[in-house]
């Protein structure tokens, strides 16, 4: 037994740094066996607290052994696991093995909330306390948010963010419930921190979660999932557990249909589908039908720029392109975004996209010009409800980009694309009025559902999954963004303009709708766009469209 002097801060269950514990010959054999086999170590020496039985050995189930083996034998692992499957305990147990039997290993335990990460660390520390002293490394630090062992290994617990691990050197990153990390934070983490982390030869990244809609976790999972005879789109080894593999309670029978029905009765069908069936369910009441959304497939871009530019297809000679721009103030909330679409023939194709929530509105025009010029001097349509008017002005006047699309107010015809000579009621770009958005949504829905617009970008598809009916319009569901979706809405509106028809020699209305025109226009907005038309809008000559 270790004395209080030998224990860490008087805790006799923890070996202090510098304290030597003699090994028996049998313990040496055990130590070597544990170091070699993490499953053996976990089964024999990890203890957990059971609500019914108190402190008990962690008896791994078969699926938990599969998780441990996958993590042990792969650098990158993504696990899609149901609620109450012991995923955190399984990962804690492996992390303990990792830091105990390897020298100078830095591990980051990151969760959607700092409190959650610290709770995971607390459970790890509890398991550590019940290890035999001869298996322990001496404690150097033992804090709420971190621990450091005598062998040089460290564990840090924090929320998932770029700042949490920036500047650090980590051998393992454990991302708990990554699907519940807000999209903007997840993207910032991967763009700024992830490349450095993964540059090592042995670094491990463990991404574990239950699904939570269509987000970065979803796309990493889809990229890791391999079809027969095909390689995955990323380096992650996927692990999946079905709820029927999990016992009803420790040592009890497996979950069955009776248990399933009980859970549904206590919650809801949709919640069960998400949390236990692990279905990637998007939002309801989406503009694009759910059946169509599930058929949309995404591909990796040919060129990916860390600043937010993804290119799927370079410019082709004699092809015509349109850039649709939606702007923000660059304050880390909404994104400035634009899409590049090849309109030479149908089906139209999204060939590039840009999205960045930190770029200044004064810098954005330079990016738009650079990309538009590469795409054969593409026509640029800019949304000018807010800061977009400045973007359009800088692009046209300061940068002297000529192929900006102007709109004019034409009485009952509303806003229409013009040649830029409409006098005081002519403007660079388009204001997203109710009629513009209604028409744009209607046409976008038709283009996508009739396979007249090819979209392979994961971010765009993700926003369409959460672009939902709200009140009198469509917008991003709570906790999501719709900047790329709005770029497509602008494109939909553009395709119904006479200028577009003349440019492409294509009447989208006829090409897309055929004999279904009336039905689609009646059913497009079932949840209540107002009947307001551009005929009801007056322009005040400044910056406001108002109802007549």
Helix and strand topology:
Blueprint: E1 7-8, E2 11-15, H1 25-36, H2 38-45, E3 47-50, E4 54-57, H3 62-73, E5 76-80, H4 87-100, E6 106-111, H5 114-129, E7 139-142, E8 146-149, E9 154-159, H6 162-165, E10 172-176, H7 183-192, H8 194-197, E11 204-209, H9 216-224, E12 237-240, H10 257-266, H11 269-275, H12 290-293, E13 303-304, E14 309-311, E15 321-326, E16 336-342, E17 348-356, H13 364-374, E18 379-382, H14 388-398, E19 406-409, E20 415-418, E21 426-428, H15 434-449, E22 453-454, H16 458-465, E23 467-470, E24 473-476, H17 483-494, H18 498-504, H19 508-513, H20 517-523, E25 537-539, E26 545-547
Parallel strand pairs: 5-11, 5-12, 6-9, 6-10, 10-11, 15-18, 17-22
Antiparallel strand pairs: 1-2, 3-4, 7-8, 8-9, 13-14, 14-17, 15-16, 16-17, 19-20, 19-21, 23-24, 25-26
Helix pairs in contact: 1-2, 2-4, 3-4, 4-5, 10-11, 13-14, 15-17
How far is it from the N-terminal to the C-terminal residue, by CA?
87 Å
Estimated structural class: alpha/beta
What's the average pLDDT? 84
Per the CATH scheme, the topology name of the largest domain is Nucleotidyltransferase, domain 5
How many separate domains make up the residues? 2
Sum up the overall morphology in one term. elongated
What percent of the residues sit in helical stretches (DSSP H or I)? 25-40%
What composes the largest sheet? 8 strands, mixed
- Strand order across the biggest sheet? 7-8-9-6-10-11-5-12
The CATH architecture of the largest domain can be named as: 2-Layer Sandwich
Under CATH at level 1, the class of the largest domain stands as Alpha Beta
Oligomer: single chain
Radius of gyration: 28 Å
* Percent in strands: 15-25%
């Amino acid at each position: 037994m270790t004395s209080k002097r030998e224990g860490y801060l008087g805790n006799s269950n923890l070996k202090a740094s510098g304290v030597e514990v003699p090994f028996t010959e049998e313990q040496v054999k055990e130590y070597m066996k544990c170091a070699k086999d993490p499953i053996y170590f976990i089964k024999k020496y990890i203890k957990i607290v059971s609500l019914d039985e108190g402190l008990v050995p962690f008896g791994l189930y078969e699926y938990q052994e599969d998780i441990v083996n996958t993590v042990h034998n792969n650098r990158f692992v993504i696990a899609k696991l149901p609620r109450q499957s012991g995923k955190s305990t399984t990962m804690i147990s492996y992390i303990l093995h990792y830091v105990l039997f390897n020298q100078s290993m830095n591990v980051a335990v990151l969760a959607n909330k700092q409190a959650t990460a610290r709770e995971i660390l607390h459970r790890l520390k509890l398991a550590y306390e019940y290890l035999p002293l001869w298996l322990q490394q001496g404690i150097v630090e033992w804090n709420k948010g971190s621990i450091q062992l005598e062998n040089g290994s460290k564990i840090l617990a924090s929320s998932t963010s770029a700042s949490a691990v920036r500047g650090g050197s980590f051998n393992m990153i454990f991302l708990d419930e990554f699907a519940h990390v807000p999209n903007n934070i997840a993207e910032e983490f991967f763009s700024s921190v992830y490349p450095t982390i993964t540059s090592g030869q042995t670094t491990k990244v463990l991404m574990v979660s239950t699904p939570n809609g269509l987000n970065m976790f979803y796309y990493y999972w889809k990229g890791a999932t391999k079809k027969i005879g095909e390689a995955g789109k990323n380096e992650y080894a996927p692990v999946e557990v079905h709820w029927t593999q999990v016992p009803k309670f420790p040592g009890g029978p497996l979950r069955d249909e009776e248990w399933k029905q009980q859970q549904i009765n206590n919650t809801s069908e949709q919640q069960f589908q998400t949390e236990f069936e692990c279905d990637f369910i998007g939002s309801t009441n989406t503009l694009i039908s759910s059946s169509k959304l599930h058929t949309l497939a995404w591909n990796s871009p040919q060129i990916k720029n860390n600043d937010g530019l993804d290119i799927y297809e370079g410019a082709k000679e004699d092809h015509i392109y349109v850039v649709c721009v939606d702007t923000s103030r660059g304050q880390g909330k909404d994104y400035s975004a634009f899409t590049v679409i090849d309109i030479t023939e149908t089906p139209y194709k999204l060939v590039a996209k840009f999205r960045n929530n930190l770029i200044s509105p004064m810098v954005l025009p330079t990016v738009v010009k650079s990309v538009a010029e590469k795409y054969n001097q593409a026509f640029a349509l800019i949304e000018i409800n807010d800061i977009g008017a400045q973007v359009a002005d800088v692009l046209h006047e300061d940068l002297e980009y000529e192929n900006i699309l102007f709109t004019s107010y034409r009485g009952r015809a509303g806003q229409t694309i013009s040649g830029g000579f409409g006098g005081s009621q002519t403007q660079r770009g388009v204001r997203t009025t109710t009629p513009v958005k209604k028409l744009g949504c209607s046409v976008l829905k038709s283009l996508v559902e009739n396979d007249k617009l090819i979209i392979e970008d994961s971010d765009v598809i993700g926003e369409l999954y959460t672009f939902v009916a709200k009140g009198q319009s469509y917008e991003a569901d709570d906790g999501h963004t719709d900047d790329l979706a709005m770029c497509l809405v602008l494109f939909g509106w553009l395709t119904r303009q006479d200028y577009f028809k003349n440019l492409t020699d294509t009447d989208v209305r006829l090409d897309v709708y055929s004999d279904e025109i009336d039905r689609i226009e009646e059913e497009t907005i079932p949840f209540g766009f107002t009947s307001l038309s551009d005929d009801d809008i007056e322009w005040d000559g400044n910056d406001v469209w108002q109802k007549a």
